[in-house]
Design goal:
Length: about 140
C-alpha cells in the first residue's frame, strides 16, 4: 500500500465520522421542534409493495438463521412529524415475513402498522408500540 493510501486509510474513519456528525447536527437543527409532547401522528398510508430482490441486509449475529432486510424503495420520511416508515423483511429457511413499521426517534417511539406472513395478504397489526431509539441527552 502506498504512503498516500496509508495516510488516507488512517484518516478516512475520522473524516467520515465528522461528516456524519455535521449532517446529523444540521438535521437536528432543522427538526428541533419534533420532540414536542403535543405532536399528532398522521394516518399511515397503506403498506408499500416491497421486493426481496432489493433488500439491504441488516447485520445479524452469525448464529442467526433468520436474515433481516429493508427495501429502500419503501422508506418514507414525514418531515412534519419526523416519522420514518419502511418495510422490514425477515427471511428464514422456511418462510418470508414482512412488517410495515414506523419510527420516530425524536420521542423514541416505534409502531408496527401491518404484518404479512408468507402466502397471506398483509393485515393490519394490533397497535404495537414502544420505545425504540436511545433517549436524547438532557
Amino acid at each position: 500500500m502506498s504512503r498516500l493510501a496509508k495516510r488516507w486509510h488512517g484518516c478516512a474513519s475520522p473524516l467520515l465520522a465528522a461528516i456524519a456528525l455535521l449532517v446529523s447536527a444540521a438535521a437536528h437543527a432543522q427538526y428541533a421542534d419534533l420532540d414536542r409532547a403535543d405532536w399528532k401522528e398522521d394516518a399511515a398510508p397503506p403498506p408499500p409493495v416491497y421486493s426481496t430482490s432489493r433488500l439491504i441486509d441488516i447485520e445479524m449475529p452469525r448464529s442467526a438463521t433468520v436474515r433481516m432486510g429493508i427495501d429502500p424503495e419503501t422508506i418514507t420520511i414525514n418531515h412534519d412529524t419526523g416519522i420514518v416508515r419502511y418495510v422490514a423483511v425477515a427471511r428464514g429457511p422456511s418462510a418470508v415475513n414482512a412488517t410495515y413499521e414506523g419510527i420516530r426517534c425524536a420521542t423514541g417511539e416505534y409502531r408496527v402498522y401491518a404484518r404479512q406472513v408468507q402466502g397471506n395478504p398483509g393485515r393490519p397489526a394490533a397497535r404495537t408500540t414502544g420505545k425504540a431509539c436511545a433517549a436524547k441527552p438532557a
